[in-house]
Amino acid sequence: MTPTLRFVLCGSVDDGKSTLLGRILQDTRQVFADEMERVAEDSRRYGTRGDAADLALLVDGLQDEREQGITIDVAYRAFETPRRRFIVADAPGHEQYTCNMATGASTAHLAVVMTDARKGILPQTARHTRIVAMLGVRHIVLAVNKMDLVDWDRDRFEPIAAQYWAEVARIGVTKVQAIPVSALTGGNLTRPAAESPWHNGPTLLEHLETVDAERPADRQPFRMPVQYVNRPNPDFRGYCGRVAAGTVSPGDQVLVSPAGTPAEVESIVVWGGERQQAARGDSVTLTLQPQVDVSRGDVIVAAGEPLEVADQFQARIVWMGDEPLTVGRPYRMKLHTQEVGATVTRIRHRVGVSDGAELAAAHLKLNDLGVINLATTRPVPFAPFDESRALGGFILIDRATNATAGAGTITFPLMRAANLSWQAFDIDRAVRAQMKRQRARCLWLTGLSASGKSTVANLLERRLVSGGRHTYLLDGDNLRHGLNRDLGFTEADRVENIRRVAEVARLMVDAGLIVIASFISPFRSEREFARSLFEPGDFMEIFVDASVEVCARRDPKGLYARALNGEIRNFTGVSSPYERPVNPDVHLDTEKLSPDQCVKLVVRRMEDVV
Amino acid sequence: MKRYPWLSALESEAIEIMREGIAVAARPVMLYSIGKDSSVLLHLARKAFWPAPPPMPLLHVDTTWKFREMIAFRDRVAAEAGVRLIVHTNREGVDAGITPFTHGSACFTEAMKTVALRQALDAGRYDIVFVGARRDEEKSRAKERIFSLRSPTHQWDPKAQRPEPWNLYNTHLQTGESLRVSPLSNWTEADVWRYIAAEEIPIVPLYYAAERPVVKRDGLWIMVDDDRMPLEPGEAPRMRRVRFRTLGCYPLTAAIESDAATLAAIIAETIATDHSEREGRLIDHDDEASMERKKREGYF
């Protein structure tokens, strides 16, 4: 039995979660006298119970929460009883704070789902249940609260419990304990309620103290994602990580995934010595013999039990970003200790909150649940989430804002990556670039229509070619007539347009060319994606800057006039946003600089970055 | 750690968090306050990166009003751990003559701790800042993420915290932003003491009960640590058997009467007490939600 039980309190707003937690803390004597004094003071100021102490104020720790009387973010509280130690996450009930609730649920062994005896199972009750189940929680307590307000009526409690059992059975949760409680009176929380002699089950605390909620760890093969390579001197290379599954001892045969390199565990190094075994949950440092190549993001696994490696997955996801999830948009994916580029290739469906229906969806919005297909930019070692929380859970990070945009769980790989490593050819881009006596790279010009990109690109290419360089100019028009002619101007199509352009540019740089890419490329995340395809220094973002007013005045193709008339939809700068580069490698102000001056600036910058 | 089986799990979790921070950090630093939590944090850093010394410097914001025993302890411990110690004091504050007696605790704390910390962080351009904060210390800390984002002006926005599922910490930063990383988030005060006992971690002797010169102010015992403390007419330091639950600036940190002179006695007292440890901190009482406000302003 795990010595610390982590549980999350969830359910709809006003079901009494914070009050219930405050009551448990008080009844198990976890609340200090000075804390209680503060609660009494706060209750008079913000409380909802007249002069009685509003126990929710024990845990609603933010000023805004106390003022509004709601829970906004998850609060964690550790407490002990003589039988067990607990960490409880008190999660917000409002739909708009669902992602905070998911944060609290992700680390929980058990969820206490609350519902109001007068209201029964609400859509938010069902949503929270679905999310905790998706995030790996297998044990649920249904706490039917406010029983004091329905006279502890058994005929109120039992239909709610029955309905809930039927619903959770459909999503694969089988370990449900239903308990009638009153957070206000404390009935069936830490002591049995005299009013409910018909309840034969345990009190809430009793159940929490005795439930065995951890997955069995035995007989799982050894897995340890490498977090950090410790190299204090040339003689020592230690691989630091936390054991995700199984056990390890010196002398064990292991493989380094994804490369599949075999090695033997030489020692388990701990402070001031070595130890003979480490098990799941232990943070350790391993040394291997021979000293093979291992980096952060690799996984050391038991020999004969290799991890699967793939670059396409089906996954469940709860969306946490303000910007909706868009097919084709590149994200960063963090999976165990590894970070890799990832693109959602398809939204299979959105999950209906209350009934689990599979709904067609073009986007996933904040707090939506969905099932997606995902492609990573290189094959990664993983395990399905149902086998391993540690190796199958991931987050997606927005490239432009760095926001944590989604939390996902890998269901299964769509295509197993047959080759575990890329084919390495003898002739590489360095050789090809050397033959041309140049440094291959991509010069990416971004800016509004009519900002001067084509003029600068054209002059720049002429300058480079006259200096003996081998170049190629990619621009919106020449690609949209061919490779990208199937794409329109919706946001999704623009994302795909830039993705293809970036991939083509990468191939050409690999061929040893200096590629000039001239595209409006209005979205920061797409430009960041393009940059991510190149080695550091091989990609230069060149911001061709002129205000919308100036561009509209220049308007060589008459496009601004038509856009302003409403004849062209999604026109950047008029009816679609342009996200200015934050830190471009070169910033060209074409309102002040001549095309010739612009080109000189770019060439000088190219000489600086060798 | 056999008696408290969760301590090894807390230790492994803290080490995992530290390694995750160091793996991505360009300019890491550890805020070192010399207190018991800092002692545990430094001990964990030594364990996490052994046989290398901790790969980050310690940063101590010295208000010039710390207990003398704290400063002596700080210098000895840093040398022993083989880590670089950076000490920063707000010189403008000193030159302006700001003291807790002349300017009040709120103004003093703002100038000599909050502003001083911002100065030190700006000077070091640190991206990953390890701190010894625990969620059980205070209600707004109970809400904070383990990897907690700070704006370029070191502000915390409690309403825009990044979701933090599982142990997948998002460490991406825009220019000037930083992360406060709290490896002890899930520890309680009792856990800290039990761990100190189990690992025999050295701590400042002020935590143990001893006869010390104190005066009673507003019902709290304040230790007279040096002759800068102005005494009221007729007020004279008395010798009392006291100890400290938390350590800070001596004029702002109240002692409690106690006979606990061993770790076992401290642990017994910690579990039996019905008062929170921050009670001895004068700054927390200044106003409602003072901690949250201080954090929004960049106090850790």
Summarize the structure.
The complex is a heterodimer of chains A (610) and B (300). Chain A is of the alpha+beta class.
SSE map:
The complex is a heterodimer of chains A (610) and B (300).
Chain A (H helix, E strand, L loop, with lengths): L3 E8 L5 H11 L5 H14 L16 H6 L6 E6 L4 E6 L7 H9 L3 E7 L6 H12 L4 E7 L8 H17 L4 E6 L23 H7 L12 E3 L2 E6 L2 E7 L4 E2 L4 E5 L3 E10 L2 E3 L2 E2 L3 E7 L9 E4 L5 E12 L5 E2 L3 E6 L2 E14 L6 E2 L3 E2 L4 E14 L6 H4 E6 L5 E13 L12 H7 L5 E6 L6 H14 L4 E5 H5 L10 H20 L3 E5 L5 H9 L6 E7 L2 H7 L4 H6 L21 E4 L5 H14 L2
Parallel strand pairs in A: 1-3, 1-4, 4-5, 5-6, 26-28, 26-29, 27-28, 29-30
Antiparallel strand pairs in A: 2-3, 7-16, 8-9, 9-15, 10-14, 11-12, 11-16, 12-13, 12-15, 17-23, 17-25, 18-22, 19-20, 19-24, 20-21, 20-23, 24-25
Chain B lengths: L5 H19 L3 E4 L4 H14 L8 E4 L6 H14 L3 E4 L2 H5 L4 H25 L3 E3 L16 E4 L27 E4 L7 H11 L10 E8 L2 E4 L14 E6 L10 E4 L5 H10 L17 H8 L3
Parallel strand pairs in B: 1-2, 1-4, 2-3, 4-6
Antiparallel strand pairs in B: 5-6, 7-8, 7-9, 8-10, 9-10
Structural class of the helices, strands and pairings of chain B? Answer: alpha/beta
Show the largest interface: A-B, 68 and 61 residues
Average pLDDT of chain B, rounded to a whole number, is 90
CATH class of the largest domain in chain A: Alpha Beta
Assigned CATH superfamily of the largest domain in chain B: HUPs
CATH topology of the largest domain in chain B: Rossmann fold
**Rg result of chain A:** 29 Å
What composes the largest sheet of chain B? 6 strands, mixed
Task: Work out the helix count of chain B.
Answer: 8
Main sheet overview of chain A = 8 strands, antiparallel
Helix content of chain A: 25-40%
Shape, principal axes of CA atoms of chain B = globular
Task: Characterise this structure.
The complex is a heterodimer of chains A (610) and B (300). Chain A is an alpha+beta fold. In chain A, 47% of the residues are buried. Chain A has four domains: 207 residues, 3-Layer(aba) Sandwich (Rossmann fold); 80 residues, Beta Barrel (Elongation Factor Tu (Ef-tu), domain 3); 109 residues, Translation factors (Elongation Factor Tu (Ef-tu), domain 3); 180 residues, P-loop containing nucleotide triphosphate hydrolases (Rossmann fold, 3-Layer(aba) Sandwich), CATH 3.40.50.300. In chain A, helix 10 packs across helix 16. Chain B is 35% helix and 15% strand. Chain B starts with 5 loop residues before the first helix and ends with a helix. Chain B folds into two domains: 198 residues, Rossmann fold (3-Layer(aba) Sandwich); 80 residues, no CATH class. Chain B is built from eight helices and ten strands. Chain B is globular. With 300 residues, chain B is of the alpha/beta class. The chains are: A alpha+beta (610), B alpha/beta (300). Chains A and B meet through helix 2, helix 3, strand 2, helix 4 and strand 8 of A and helix 1 and helix 2 of B.
